[in-house]
Amino acid sequence: MTEHRVYLGLGSNLGDRRKNISRAVELIGRRVGAVLRQSTLIETEPWGFESENRFLNGVVLCKTELSPREVLEETQLIERVLWRTRKTFIPPAPEAPIYADRTIDIDILLYDDLTVDEPDLKIPHPLMAQRDFVMIPLAEIQAEEE
Predict the structure, then answer these.
(1) Angle at the Cα of 40 (from 129 to 131), degrees rounded to 5?
(2) 25 alpha carbon, distance to own chain's centre
(3) Residue 62 and residue 87: Cα distance in Å, rounded?
(4) Which residue among 18, 116, 122, 123 is the one 20 to 30 A from 6 at the CA level?
(5) How many whole angstroms from its chain centre is CA 111?
(6) Is the pLDDT higher at 8 or at 145?
């Protein structure tokens, strides 16, 4: 099977944030593929919503044999295992997502050089360039590859 490189963004602002991310990385290694690199964790303010809870954020690079859709399914399963809950109300429009506190958030940032544009799966992640909490850790581990 072909191995692919996938960058995943991680964030947590509820509970033991460091433990939540550590557990997510462990499960990613088991379910998605070997974790090749992990960035330093940075503490940030919530993005897109108000909360008293600050986030810890980081990025990991994995090698995987899974397709982008399978990576999405596995990361959503990991979020559920780690007690991620999603809002049940519907936002006014698909382009107006609802953000909330969470034990873990896992986003697919990049998958090889692939572009995917499906309603529930967009690669590269469409908002990553607007988010320092993604771009700073991403740049850190990409620099390690050079």
Answers:
(1) 15
(2) 10
(3) 28
(4) 18
(5) 12
(6) 8
Q: What is the pTM of this model?
A: 0.88
Determine the Cα–Cα distance for residues 68 and 46; give it in Å rounded to an integer.
27
Q: Between 47 and 122, name the one with better pLDDT.
A: 122
Beta bridge partners of 4: 64
How far is residue 58's CA from residue 74's CA, in Å, rounded to a whole number? 18
Three-state DSSP state, 24: helix
What mean pLDDT, rounded, does the chain reach?
88
Gap between the Cα atoms of 88 and 120, Å rounded: 16
At 95 the pLDDT is 52
> Between the CA of residue 50 and those of 10, 18, 28, 70, 94, what are the distances in Å?
19, 21, 29, 32, 20
The helix/strand/coil state of 134 is helix
Contacts of 16 (CB under 8 A, 6+ apart): none
- Cα(63)–Cα(129) distance, rounded to whole angstroms? 23
On the 0-12 / 13-18 / 19+ scale of CB atoms within 10 A, 2 is exposed
How is residue 17 written in tokens? 């944030």
The helix/strand/coil state of 29 is helix
| pLDDT per position as a tens digit, 13-27 | 999 999 999 999 999
